[in-house]
Amino acid sequence: MLTNENNFIQRLKQQKEDALDFIVDRYLPLIRGVTYKVLSPLEDDGLIDECINDILLSIWNNSKKFHGGSIDFKKWICAIAKYKSIDYYRKSNKKVEIIKDVIDLNHEKSAEDELIIMEEKTELIKLINLLEPMDRDIFMMKFFLGIKTEDISLKLGLTNASIDNRIYRGKKKLYNKAKKHGLRGGVL
C-alpha cells in the first residue's frame, strides 16, 4: 500500500518511511518557510537545514502522540517547526556568547582537546563511509565541505527535498550505527 492523502497520518504512526517521504514532499515548503522566518536573522543556511532535519525527526519520533485529521496535522507540524526553530535560535545565540567567553579565556586549544576533536572526526568519517555512496557524497559535501543543499541538488541532479530526505535518513542510520559501535554521543 502506498501512502496517499487519506492514509499518511496512519502510516506515519506505523513508522512507515514512505509516509515520511510523503510528508517531506507535501509539507517541506511550509516547514522551510516557518524555519526560515525564525532563523533567517542568523544568516546561517546550514543551521536552517539542520533545524529542518531535526523537525522531520521530531515529527517521526512523536507521530504516535498526534491525534486528529490532516488540517490538525498541518497545524501540529507548524507548531513543531516554530518551537524547534526558536530552540535553535536560542541555542545559537548562547553558543555565540559562550564562544566569545571561551575565546576571551583561552585562545588556544590544548593538545588533549585537539586530539579528542581529531578522534571524533575520524570516528565520524568511518561511520559515513558505511553509508551508501550517494548518501556518503551528500554528507561529505554538506558537512565537511559546507556546500549548500541547493548546490548539492544541482550537482547530483536531485531535488532539494530529496537531499534533505537523504540527510535525515543518513543521520538516523549514523546515529544507530554509532550506538551499535558504542561510540560516544559527541560524534553525532
UniProtKB/TrEMBL annotation:
Coiled coil: none annotated. Keywords: DNA-binding, Sigma factor, Transcription, Transcription regulation. One of its GO terms (biological process) is DNA-templated transcription initiation. InterPro entries: RNA_pol_sigma-70-like, RNA_pol_sigma-70_dom, RNA_pol_sigma70_r2, RNA_pol_sigma70_r4_t2, RNA_pol_sigma_r2, RNA_pol_sigma_r3/r4-like, WH-like_DNA-bd_sf. Residues 123-174 form the RNA polymerase sigma factor 70 region 4 type domain. It holds the Pfam family Sigma70_r2. Gene3D superfamilies: 1.10.1740.10, Winged helix-like DNA-binding domain superfamily/Winged helix DNA-binding domain. Residues 23-93 form the RNA polymerase sigma-70 region domain. GO terms for molecular function: DNA binding; sigma factor activity. Belongs to the sigma-70 factor family. ECF subfamily. This is Sigma-70 family RNA polymerase sigma factor. It comes from Paenibacillus protaetiae.
